[in-house]
Protein 1
Amino acid sequence: MCNKLRILTALAILAASLSCGDSPVDLAGNPTPSFLTIQLHSDSVVYTSWTQCSDNDFDAYILWRSKSAGIQADPSQAQAIKIFSSDPLQLTWFDSTVVPGETYWYALETRNTSVLSAWSNELSLTIPLNEPENLTVFFIDPSHGSLSGDAMLIRTPNGFNYLIDGGDRRSDWSCGRDRIVPMLDSLGIAHLDGIVATHPHSDHVGGLIAVLEEVPVYKVWDCGWTGDASNTYEEFLLEVQASGAEYIEGSRGMTLDWDPELQVEILHPEPNPGSGDMNNASIVIHLEFEEVSFLFTGDLETDDGENDILSSYAAEDLQSDILKVGHHGSSTSTSSQWLDAVDPSYAAIEVGSGNPYGHPHGEVINRLDSRGIPVYRTDLDGTFVITTDGTDITVF
Ligand SMILES: [Zn+2]
């Protein structure tokens, strides 16, 4: 190319760039970047808008969102939440898929027909928490044939969602896939902020496998069992890994940051349980919302389980308005001393209606009845719900 032709070509490119208005001159042929603006539209909707790209070879705007800064540097950690092709006048979007309490970063990529990109400025916004509402616990019926188990969904006052155990499964049915996931769908819950797997038995982790397959889960608390365990537990651990959820070994004294309105503490087990009775490896959780407290006990037994907690905590630290009765109402749990300390106003029993163990055992029901404690049980009541505003408790 002669010098004169080079100069003419450069001038032609410059003229094409200048035709995009006030945009920066870009001799490389990249699109003109837009300027992005974001603002909170309503409680959980973000209004995004951007300046127009007037390039003749405009192809698309791509609106990216991430939970961390630096989208342009690494778009793989971000999500392309909307692509607007072939319409340079599409300059706004309402993002209604945000979650209260989360912080999001946004950036707009503009592409031209040569598939070259330009990036807008990047902005972040924290979605405020909604007015706190009730704490609600769904005691999900784990019954199917002879299957039993535990499965409880907790919706916190600020709308976070946690699952404690997921019931059992067999070849043609999963409490997770067939009962929990449809319930999450019906409640409009698109992800779980966390799952607690109390201990490795199949009637607690079996159903969690399908939940992890089908629903995004952010965190998983597990007892960290180190002894022999079933294939189901191994499969569960592999599924946790595949899901990308953060894996945490839960042990005594750990506080769980579930919701600013709640105090949640793990009372049991000690770290690295791996010998003795697997039931006594159960993660036990004490949860308080203002004046109301719950105690979730997994399959904890009296010997080495309840008694261990009784010797480690003062009764006032154990007192709970709602007791999830240990081990499906087995007589090897829920001793009189335990009930003296916990002193519950309500008892909730997770148990399958066709279980072959005779759960819940008559001795436990008698112990609860003789104290005047109302008992709700999934084998007779099906799925039931306990909800509280922090003062009053309603069961339905
Ligand atoms: Zn069990």
Protein 2
Amino acid sequence: MSILPQPTIESVLQQTRKETGLPPSELRVLMTHITGFDRVGLVTKGNRELPMDQLSAFKSLAAKRQHGEPIAYLVQQKEFYSRPFFVDPRVLIPRPETEELVEHALGFLQNKSTENLLTRVLDIGCGSGAIAISLALENPILEVTATDISADALWVAQHNANELGAKNVRFIQSDLFAGLLNQTPALAFDLICSNPPYIEQGDIHLSQGDLRFEPSLALTDGGDGLRFYRETARNSPTLLRPGGGVLVEHGHDQQGAVKALFAMPPYVHVQGLPDLAGTPRFVFAHI
Ligand SMILES: C[S@@+](CC[C@H](N)C(=O)[O-])C[C@H]1O[C@@H](n2cnc3c(N)ncnc32)[C@H](O)[C@@H]1O
């Protein structure tokens, strides 16, 4: 009895492409994840046989992808600010626009003089920890505090901090400001930043694309999409050092409404900023 040869990596890629209609680039990402070979390795080792266990794991991932599951969840990784973050359905997949929030935050903090005090940053709703950990690693003399209401998200964020070697970040479970106000000694930050859930309840996008698979807690505030900005504008002054700032990311059509929420004392300057695509995306407010 002759044993049938196992299909090769390349033949599996081609066959799966025909069967699923998935783009070759996506299939290669999944195959890279399964085999551990990088993109070049997939080409140079394309005529190697794919072991049975890897074949069935690959087929299973391709079927899930065909169903719409985000690639990042399938390979449990998303690059953010040039670092690989572990992600799974417990956390939002960090978006490229949010890297620009990190840029703006670093720019503001660089110009900050805190007279021998360590510069402190708070990230509200940290999810995977993308913002907090990137800030902590880019500027190791920062003291970063990151919060989330979700214990699951905090587990992922702590895991990422450990894996990426961010020692200057601590995580606190808190419903918005509830666990931060009335602390002794009082908490005080130079910058409060946040990419909160801002999609309005019932928005059609919640039932489309990647968003179907992401935690609803990370996407919508269950109301008009502005609840987190209202709370942040109201509570941040209590937690800010003199000259401190608040930097928030928001939806493409929310800049006017978010700016209006910060247009009150003690904020002295409120600025709307676009993302690289030119879409109004961030509001920065100073006290
Ligand atoms: C849009 S995600 C942002 C995640 C991450 N900062 C990023 O930019 O990729 C919003 C995060 O806010 C968290 N969140 C939702 N409600 C919250 C609340 N009441 N208090 C604190 N965090 C909350 C969610 O669990 C989620 O991780």
Protein 3
Amino acid sequence: MNRSPSSSSHRQPRRNPRLSHLRCISCALVLPLEDSPRGCPACEVAARPSSLEAVYGDLPPSVRPSASGFQWGEWLPYLEGVSLGEGSTPGLELPRLASELGIAKLSVKHEGMNPTGSHKDRMSAQAVSRALEVGASSVVLASSGNAAVSAAAYCAAAGLRCEVATYRDMPQAFVAALRRLGAQRFAFDRGAERWEHVRRRVEDDGAFALTNYCLPPVGSPVFGVEGYRAVALECAAEGCIPDHVLVPTARGDLLWGLYSGFRDLRLAGLIDRMPRLWAVEPIPRLSRVLQGERAQGEFPGKTAQFSIAGGTVTLQQVHAVRRSEGGAVVVDDAGAHRGTSSLAREGFWVELCAGSSVTAVTQLLADNRIAISEHVLLVLTAKGDRDPFDPAVIS
Ligand SMILES: [Zn+2]
């Protein structure tokens, strides 16, 4: 959204007229522009649940921000809608850390600078605009933190009820934010219980789903995930097309949005190559799938990197890394702490999983999957103010 003084946080949603239909990202089945939080019906029947993507008519001929409404609205489902000033996050070069890591160029996209402190605001702006357009009165989601606070803020701006299914041990900073923003919180011990709660509210009561609720999972619903394409567009508008992009990943919404944005920029002839996308994960999940295990399996493991915890994989993350010729890197909690401290020495206060990308660079260099002459972009997913303080590991 423009940040001129005349901008308001709530405009009547205006759908992008270029948006023509939805398409399965796996089997290419074409579907009308209707909400389908379970993803592709054909792939669901085949026991390989798969996300949908939006298909636009002619792509814009240039990579320039829109004159009004959402900054990249012509590339997104909505031209105008609910905004709190998300996007236009800083893209910064870190020459000192680059030299420490032994790489030619290192830059960061600081998504913690979004209104509620995380990249999730890009999804909330588009998805809550969708919820308003279809006349929903309640938005419901399952979240470990960042998405919950973001949804609560955008629902407050839109005048919609927000219900969040969370874990019982959600960090107190999130609990306080949800209470202040007026969201209703339901706490559970297990991920599957959270998703069952969301399923009931969506399928039985008609609430609008902001996130997945199926197991095996799909990504979050398409009208929200499309919002992440703007990260790629902002990079391109700044002339920043890195060789590699590293993304802390749980179920791959941001990863897919980046892939989709860069792919369409390339199809429109506006960039000349696709960066290789790397999912950084706290336990081996996608890594195991890329080595041949079924994506629909379960991959249990514990981590303090709560924003990217969970034991499942989605096909959208598999496709994003395979189609961009990237892959997956596992960084444990000790590695994430080291990386977060490296970023802190550069002045960046980010959540634990955002630091894992720094350590992932070292691993990819050691494996010769990144060359020392290349440019690596790290997506800093959220600010560090929600991480529980643990004096044993933060010194
Ligand atoms: Zn399909």
